UniProtKB/TrEMBL annotation:
Signal peptide: 1-33
Name under which the protein is recorded: Endonuclease/exonuclease/phosphatase family protein
Database matches in PANTHER family: CALCOFLUOR WHITE HYPERSENSITIVE PROTEIN PRECURSOR, ENDONUCLEASE_EXONUCLEASE_PHOSPHATASE DOMAIN-CONTAINING PROTEIN
MF GO annotations: endonuclease activity
């Protein structure tokens, strides 16, 4: 059953907004005010369960990176709930509270607790949003026996009175054929001609592979459209591959695309940020 966390209090939301500092009042905000509603600022971030590349746990460091990106919505991968390695913290709830954002969590692993009396430990993906999350679902993707279960978390956001479909995934890391089947299933779930839809995630493959082409046959890719340079996101200390993607539907043309490098030690991946103008659409 979908369970939507309550909207954050106005005090927490304002506190989080104030924490962004003067960077939130840059020229892009002036331009947006002059031309209409500002674009939706989105990101993807594999947070490595809140641990640095040296495996030092610091979830607040992850929160500071998300705050500094000034995003409206972010899709997270490698998110823990109630694991010993991450201090038994409910990470999506903690980040939502810390940042004044709504959240949805998709559990792809659901395991027995590591200590008696603890909640079941879960692992998967999450959405953090400043806009209301109207509903969400998590669908498990095709699995090779013995591999890690992967999923597609889809959240319907209410943005300025209309709906935006925001999806996050994390594909298998060591099996290209499995990723191809997972990508094909994602296309089935999102549709062959999606609109006002954004897929983000750590796809564990580069843009020239069949599994990524399966996705970009029906979705755009913000990096070749609006990015500069190689766009490498992994690993964060010595980036050499672009495996973290923002893939919007064709009706969403990115204005910007950026690999966010302000704190490469927060995780073993670098986040990607993009601004997407939303076309008008009837409410539903």
């Amino acid at each position: 059953m979908n369970h939507l966390n309550p909207a954050p209090s106005r005090r927490r939301f304002l506190a989080a907004a104030a924490g962004l500092g003067v960077t939130a009042a840059g020229t892009s905000g002036v331009a947006a005010a002059a031309t209409g509603p500002r674009p939706l600022r989105v990101a993807t971030f594999n947070i490595h369960h809140g641990a640095s590349p040296a495996d030092v746990l610091d979830l607040d460091r992850v929160a500071r990176v998300i705050q500094a990106m000034r995003v409206d919505v972010v899709g997270l991968q490698e998110v823990d709930r109630f694991w010993k390695r991450s201090g038994f913290v409910d990470q999506p709830a903690w980040l939502g509270e810390r940042l004044g954002m709504r959240y949805a969590f998709g559990a792809n692993l659901d395991l027995d607790p590591e200590e008696p009396g603890r909640p079941r430990r879960q692992y998967g993906t999450a959405v953090l949003s400043r806009w209301p999350i109207r509903s969400w679902t998590n669908t498990h993707l095709p699995l090779v026996p013995g591999h890690e279960q992967r999923g597609l978390l889809r959240a319907t956001l209410g943005v300025r009175g209309a709906c935006v479909d925001f999806a996050v995934t994390h594909l298998q890391h060591d099996d290209g054929q499995e990723r191809e089947r997972q990508s094909a299933r994602i296309v089935e779930l999102l549709g062959s001609s999606p609109e006002r839809t954004i897929l983000v995630g750590d796809l564990n493959a580069t843009a020239d592979t069949p599994e990524i082409r399966t996705l970009t046959d029906v979705l755009g890719d913000v990096w070749p459209q609006a990015g500069t340079g190689d766009g490498f996101t992994y690993d964060s200390v010595n980036p050499h591959a672009r495996i973290d993607f923002l893939l919007p539907s064709r009706d969403l043309r990115p204005l910007t695309a950026e690999v966010f490098t302000a704190d490469p030690g927060a995780s073993d991946h670098l986040p990607v940020v993009s601004e997407l103008p939303l076309p008008a659409r009837h409410r539903r």
